[in-house]
Specification:
With about 240 residues, the chain is α/β, with parallel strands linked by helices. The protein is built from nine helices and ten strands. Pfam families: LamB_YcsF (PF03746).
């Protein structure tokens, strides 16, 4: 059994836009301890941000800025050539937008987490990672950064003395220890019990100490059943679901 007292569960939420409803935000909000809320670049809009922040605040869920590339058509999952300064400006802009709604609801901005292609770019590109971490530090000194361990973004967070929360993806396959963020099949993700077993295997592995949060995406088919299965297996292992820190 894992030697771990608690673990954060997070989901990428607030990705609806106008009349288009996307994901199962309301159902997931009751199962998670922190929410990454889209800030209007890759998805989301003003009203969606307000409603999602209000929902999180009402349920005591920590709020994070889920910053993406300015690419609505590609849902922020297409790689773009950007500089470190671009990454800085995109991050500062989106943090500021979400923070306005967080302040209105009387809750702090707890963390940041890049979305999609920006997340993977920040994992491998030190310049992009530095722009993100520097903007986070300038906007909210001490804000937590959700990132995969030992990546460029993880190192940048530590450089700016931002709390690092190592992330594991329950609803993504891992190949030779590397997450397969795009191009997966539903068979590779597996059923809710298989997703839960993936988390348990991670907790029983040598990398347990690097992980502080586990993610399931709101647009993954069966996301609610998967998150429920993960919570159940954590409870059975004596691990409490709590926000980091």
């Amino acid at each position: 059994m894992p030697d771990l007292a608690s673990l954060d569960l997070n989901a990428d939420l607030g990705e609806s836009y106008g009349w288009y409803k996307f994901g199962v935000d309301t159902e997931l909000m009751g199962l998670i301890s922190s929410a990454n809320i889209a800030c209007g670049f890759h998805a989301g809009d003003s009203r969606t941000m307000r409603i999602t922040v209000e929902l999180a605040a009402a349920q005591g869920v920590r709020i994070g800025a889920h910053m993406g590339l300015p690419d609505r058509l590609g849902f922020g999952r297409r790689v773009m050539e950007i500089s470190g300064e671009d990454a800085y400006d995109y991050t500062l802009h989106q943090m500021g937008a979400l923070n306005a709604f967080a302040a209105r609801s009387g809750v702090p901005l707890h963390h940041i987490k890049p979305h999609g292609a920006l997340y993977m770019m920040a994992a491998r590109d030190p310049e992009v990672a530095d722009g993100i971490a520097r903007a986070a530090h300038d906007h909210t000194p001490g804000v937590a950064v959700y990132a995969m361990p030992r990546t460029a973004l993880a190192k940048a967070a530590e450089r700016y003395r931002l709390p690092l929360v190592g992330e594991f993806f329950a609803d993504r396959p891992y190949v030779h220890g590397q997450v397969m963020m795009f191009g997966w099949t539903l068979e590779q993700i597996g059923s809710p019990p298989q997703v839960a077993q993936r988390v348990l295997a991670m907790l029983n592995s040598d990398c347990t100490g690097d992980i502080g949060t586990v993610c399931i995406h709101t647009d993954t088919p069966g996301a609610v059943a998967m998150m429920t299965a993960v919570r159940d297996i954590l409870t059975a292992a004596g691990v409490h679901v709590r926000p980091p820190g």
